[in-house]
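Mods, move this if it's the wrong board.
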Amino acid sequence: MSAKPLPFDLPSVGLGTWNMRGEAAERGVREAIELGYRLIDTATAYHNEEAIGAGIRSSGIDRSELLIVTKFPEEDAGREREALRTSLDLLGVDHVDLWLIHAPLDAEGSLRIWERFIEARDEGLVRAIGVSNFLPPQVDELIAASGVVPAVNQVAFGPHYYDVEFAPHHTARGIVAQAHSPYSENDLAHPVLRAIAGRHDCSVPQVLLRWHRAHGVPVVVKSVSRTHLAENLDTSGRPLEPAEVAAIDRLGINPPSGKEE
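Not the wrong board. Structure tokens:
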């Protein structure tokens, strides 16, 4: 088993760009970088890589200061190199920092894609490779078949999806768990979340981001509002108390001590 650690640290909050298009995407990326975002996450399937690249260039940031993540659509298996070259051209860069398989196929299909990912990493077209939306057994199948451990698995990790076994599984294998959609499918009006937000004098989305930080899981979160972009980066508030983290954990699918009704 070959576990190659990430050659960089993932920031606690990066910019997600799903469903961002055209001028709004370009402006959103530029403003996010101006506010301090240093990870920009996109995907071939988002059809916005050209606008993302334009936003990066218009920000004036040096390429070495930014982490760029994109994802390969698993349904395009067999076109990995072509898709990567297209992503690089649209983004206007000579490499991406992290390339992910957007979602799993069956074990054999995922392995075929993964072998092309390994080649791209070894050739320097990408700095690190990983997966997205893979369950722990699917990760283990890929490792067993290839001998190469994904550097990252980007998954939904909000309280709705919290599984107490997930992070330890990944940590044991040297995989960084990164969260997408931190607010999606969570009840933002849940009394547990609202009570904690009230005690901390912050918004429920900020509570959810502090919960992710408490678990050591970096997040990519989408916003086109400059106000919300700034709020998502704000770490000035008091961290959640362990009891508050545990109360949110109990909202999950496989919590430590039973599901809260």
